[in-house]
Design goal:
mainly alpha, 2 strands
Length: about 700
């Protein structure tokens, strides 16, 4: 068909009087044009017509481009896809040839160079490769090829010197990762499983030095969930080798600079304290308000300065402690993985440590690494700790450091470095690192001492280390420390299920170091209280008297109180809701039942303690439950009958009123008939006994003389 092309003609065409042409009149003569249709022409002829108007350099560039590139076609033409595929294949062949040529050139150069030139050659090669990756020149398959071929070339060139080859390969992988992570075209999240697996495999084949561990941590931290699934086995292998590297001595190098920095931090802290002490001597008690404000600002500034120096000392201490940086790096790397993979790594590595019979030091390092994993489930370290305990106990001084690492990872402290410093000082003064010194350090640092004490006891309970809890409390008592009831009652409850006698000894120890007058919470430690009731009648030193039991849970003995004191414990206002929960009511009723059926207590003691329970419920306006009336019936009537004694009528009437309220009139009448029959039987036996006594005293049956 062709295209319509309109050309300008010289003939004038009349224009409307009103329009843009009329406006141009005053500015001069306007050339009138006329449009006319011309025959269509090909694109080539049009290009030739216009080419003369282009600059010479642009014409030459266009001709060069046309000669080197295939002629473009419309997208709708059928041959476009074939041409595009052929173009991509040709481009890929050219790219692969470039990669091959570069690697071959590197192989020839490193083979023919001297050992002294080898380092410079590898450095230049890594630099060029990094720049190519930053520019996005190579595909991921090409990067894998680079890695595999270059690794073999370096191994062959450094034959007999594995350490040198590992050093060059570490630099190679570092250059590859730096190029990928800096590239704007391809991000680490875009990597395929083959490339990621190749990098992790390469790192696992060289020695686990600090540089390799840092690079592995960066790669593992950048993996997406999809990539983690693709290279899970590689990650497990790398983590296992990482742990094995801790069995080798770490070369810390020269520590003169670190020691100098630590000394400077100590001097700065001393200078701050000296300046603050000098300021205090200049301000007396009658100072003005501005001076007091100045003093507060100085104290706050000194506190911040001292803490900064403490953090510096702590960081330098970690640098000078073997494997501490490696442990932290591994923990941070694992913390970026999915929870399922984290659990898999911990399980796999723990099993490997047990199978290889690793030293106790390796076990402690691994536990410390688990404790430092961010946002990790506490059950993971407990699971590993229990498995290691089956082989050998974790020593207490090691366990303290692991638990402290766990607390710091859980962000339990505002100033963790200060807690560590106090712990080191406390341990040095007592020549041992134990749990009591750990709690003392938390207390001296003013970092929620009782909260962390509870956390420590709960952690040890989950490990089954109840004896350690008892010894810790014993040492805390020697250090003059106190314990609140809301910490010890949970401990006693959990300890009772393990060993009641140990729980009783712990409670006796606690009574001499109470932090306040608060009593044990019955709803928190019911089993411990029930065990005290059960063992309260035992002869000897063991067991508590009922009076001590009621005192421990904060319930006074109502029966023995004078009238003036009893008025303070009068029934509370019935219009107010009761403070006793249904759970507490159930515990009180169970105590009454245990007292009623206890064979260690006399029948009189049982009745008095059951009445104590009844009075406490009445004070809180709790209706008498049937279980309590049955306990009262057993203590007041049944036990009297079992001892073949007379049941007092007044007591029976009192009990029957309670039974009628709780269980109904029919039950009360039945009990009344049974008691009446029992008492009648006793009366008949007594009468018969009296008659027999009279007969025995008068064998001749001689009656009175009328």
């Amino acid at each position: 068909m062709g295209k319509r092309k309109m050309t300008l003609q010289s003939e004038a065409v009349p224009s409307p009087s009103i329009g843009f042409g009329a406006l141009w009149g005053p500015f001069g003569e306007v050339v009138r044009t006329r449009w006319q249709w011309e025959a269509p022409t090909t694109p080539e002829s049009r290009t030739k017509e216009v080419s003369s108007a282009l600059p010479k350099w642009l014409v030459e560039w266009s001709a060069t481009a046309e000669g080197s590139a295939p002629k473009s076609r419309s997208k709708n033409l059928p041959g476009d896809s074939v041409i595009s595929k052929n173009s991509k294949k040709a481009s890929k062949k050219v790219s692969n040839k470039v990669v091959y040529d570069e690697i071959e050139s590197f192989r020839e150069a490193i083979t023919s160079c001297s050992p002294e030139e080898r380092s410079t050659l590898c450095c230049d090669f890594n630099h060029n490769l990094k720049q190519s990756l930053i520019a996005g020149v190579h595909s991921q398959d090409a990067i894998v090829y680079y890695s595999i071929r270059t690794k073999k070339i370096i191994r062959d060139a450094c034959l007999g010197s594995d350490a040198e080859a590992d050093r060059y390969l570490s630099a190679l992988y570092q250059a590859i990762w730096d190029g990928i992570s800096t590239c704007k075209i391809m991000q680490p999240s875009d990597l395929t499983g083959s490339l990621t697996a190749n990098l992790l495999t390469g790192l696992s084949e060289i020695s686990m030095c600090e540089e390799v561990q840092t690079l592995a941590s960066k790669i593992m931290s950048s993996l997406t969930f999809r990539q983690q699934l693709q290279v899970r086995s590689k990650i497990l292998r790398l983590a296992t080798l990482w742990i094995e590297s801790w069995s080798h001595d770490e070369s810390l190098g020269s520590q003169e600079q670190n020691l100098s920095l630590a000394s400077q931090a100590v001097l700065d802290a001393q200078r701050t304290v000296h300046d603050l002490r000098a300021l205090l001597t200049t301000i007396n008690r009658s100072s003005s308000l501005p001076e007091v404000v100045l003093l507060r600002e100085a104290v706050q500034s000194a506190r911040q300065s001292i803490y900064r120096n403490v953090e510096t000392i702590e960081d330098l201490s970690n640098l000078m402690t073997p494997h501490q940086r490696s442990i932290t790096t591994l923990a941070n790397a694992i913390g970026h993985l999915s929870p399922n993979l984290v659990r898999k790594i911990i399980t796999r590595c723990s099993r490997h440590i047990l199978q290889t019979r690793s030293t106790s030091e390796i076990r402690s390092f691994w536990l410390s690494a688990i404790a430092r994993i961010p946002n990790a489930d506490e059950e993971l370290i407990l699971m590993t700790w229990r498995r290691f305990q089956l082989t050998a106990e974790i020593e207490e001084h090691v366990a303290c450091d692991i638990i402290l690492d766990l607390w710091i990872c859980q962000k339990s402290f505002e100033r963790p470095a200060l807690v560590k410093l106090f712990f080191d000082v406390a341990a040095s003064e007592t020549t041992r690192r134990d749990y009591s010194n750990l709690i003392l350090a938390v207390s001296n640092a003013r970092q929620r001492c009782w909260v962390m004490t509870r956390s420590l006891f709960r952690f040890l309970e989950k490990l089954g280390l109840y004896n350690s809890i008892y010894h810790t409390i014993h040492r805390m008592k020697k250090l003059g420390m106190k314990l609140p009831a809301d910490v010890i009652d949970e401990t006693l409850e959990n300890m009772t299920a393990h060993d009641y006698m140990l729980a009783e000894q712990t409670y006796r120890l606690y009574r001499r170091m109470r932090a306040n007058e608060r009593s044990l919470r019955l709803d928190v430690c019911p089993n411990f209280v029930f065990a005290m009731v059960e063992n309260s009648g035992n002869p000897g030193d063991f067991g508590f008297k009922p009076r001590s039991i009621w005192s421990s849970i904060g319930i006074p003995l109502y029966e023995s109180m004078p009238a003036s004191s009893l008025a303070l414990y009068a029934p509370i206002d019935p219009r107010r809701p009761s403070s006793l929960t249904p759970t507490m009511v159930g515990h009180i009723v169970k105590m009454a039942t245990m007292f009623a059926y206890s064979e260690q207590h006399s029948q009189r003691c049982a009745v008095r303690n059951v009445m104590q329970c009844l009075f406490h419920l009445r004070r809180h306006h709790i209706p008498v439950p049937p279980e309590l009336t049955r306990a009262i019936t057993h203590a007041g009537i049944t036990r009297k009958i079992l001892s073949r004694g007379w049941v007092a009528r007044e007591r029976v009437k009192w009990i029957l009123r309670l039974i009628e309220q709780a269980e109904g009139t029919d039950v009360a009448m039945t009990v009344d008939k049974l008691v009446a029959a029992w008492n009648q039987g006793i009366s008949d036996r007594v009468s018969l006994r009296d008659i027999n006594i009279v007969k025995e005293s008068n064998p001749l049956r001689v009656g009175p003389i009328d």
